[in-house]
C-alpha cells in the first residue's frame, strides 16, 4: 500500500537491531485517518471470507483491529499480556516472544469470546519473526476457530515470519513489506 510506505519513509525511524520506530502514527500516537484507510484495505481483501471476529494481541494491534472491525461490523477480541483480576472463567493461553521487548509473555483470552463457530481475521501492526502471530494461531487452534486470514500493517520481509506463515498455508496480507533497511535510515519495500 503506497500510502503506508510513503508514511514509513517520511516518519519512520530505523534503529539498530532492525527496529523500525513508527510510534508517531501507528503504535503510540495514532493517525486515525491512516488507520481507517488501512482497516478498509483489510476489509476489501477479506470481506468475502465470512469473518465473525477480529483477533489481535495487546496492545499495538488493537487500534488497527478496531478500525478494520468497523467495516466488517464484527467485534474485536484481543489476547491480554497480563492476567488481570477481572478475567474470569476459563481461558485460552499461549506463550509468545516479543521481538521488540526481547522477552516472553503468556497471553490469555477468555473462552467465552472465541469458539469453534468463529471465522477469525488476525490483525497486528508488525510481523517480524512471527512469534506473536503464532501465539494467536495457537489460541485459535485451542478454540477450534477457523482462521480466514492474517492482516499485517508492516511486515519485515527480510525476517522469517511472513515466509513461514505463508508456507504453513495462511493467507497473509501485509500492507507494506520492507525488503531491507539499514542503520542510516534507508528503507526499501518489496513490490506487491
UniProtKB/TrEMBL annotation:
Q: Which domain of life is it from?
A: Bacteria
Listed A to Z, the keywords are: Cytoplasm, Glycosyltransferase, Purine salvage, Transferase
Q: What is this protein called?
A: Xanthine phosphoribosyltransferase
Q: Which GO terms of the molecular function aspect are on file?
A: xanthine phosphoribosyltransferase activity
PANTHER family xref list: HYPOXANTHINE/GUANINE PHOSPHORIBOSYLTRANSFERASE, XANTHINE PHOSPHORIBOSYLTRANSFERASE
Lineage at the top is: Bacteria, Bacillati, Bacillota, Clostridia, Lachnospirales
| Gene Ontology CC entries for this record | cytoplasm
Tell me the compartments it is located in: Cytoplasm
Which Pfam families does this UniProt record tie to the protein? Pribosyltran (PF00156)
Tell me the function of this protein.
Converts the preformed base xanthine, a product of nucleic acid breakdown, to xanthosine 5'-monophosphate (XMP), so it can be reused for RNA or DNA synthesis.
**Enzyme Commission identifier(s):** 2.4.2.22
Amino acid at each position: 500500500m503506497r500510502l503506508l510506505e510513503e508514511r514509513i519513509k517520511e516518519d519512520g525511524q530505523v534503529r539498530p537491531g532492525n527496529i523500525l520506530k513508527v510510534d508517531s502514527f501507528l503504535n503510540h500516537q495514532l493517525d486515525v485517518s491512516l488507520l481507517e484507510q488501512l482497516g478498509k484495505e483489510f476489509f476489501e481483501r477479506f470481506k468475502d471470507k465470512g469473518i465473525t471476529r477480529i483477533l489481535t494481541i495487546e496492545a499495538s494491534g488493537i487500534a488497527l483491529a478496531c478500525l478494520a472491525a468497523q467495516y466488517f461490523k464484527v467485534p474485536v477480541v484481543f489476547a491480554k499480556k497480563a492476567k488481570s483480576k477481572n478475567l474470569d472463567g476459563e481461558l485460552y493461553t499461549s506463550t509468545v516472544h516479543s521481538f521488540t521487548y526481547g522477552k516472553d509473555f503468556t497471553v490469555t483470552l477468555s473462552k467465552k469470546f472465541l469458539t469453534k463457530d468463529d471465522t477469525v481475521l488476525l490483525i497486528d501492526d508488525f510481523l517480524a519473526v512471527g512469534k506473536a502471530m503464532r501465539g494467536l494461531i495457537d489460541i485459535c487452534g485451542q478454540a477450534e476457530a477457523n482462521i480466514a486470514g492474517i492482516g499485517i500493517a508492516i511486515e519485515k520481509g527480510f525476517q522469517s515470519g511472513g515466509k513461514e506463515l505463508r508456507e504453513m498455508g495462511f493467507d497473509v496480507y501485509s500492507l507494506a513489506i520492507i525488503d531491507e533497511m539499514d542503520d542510516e535510515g534507508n528503507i526499501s519495500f518489496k513490490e506487491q
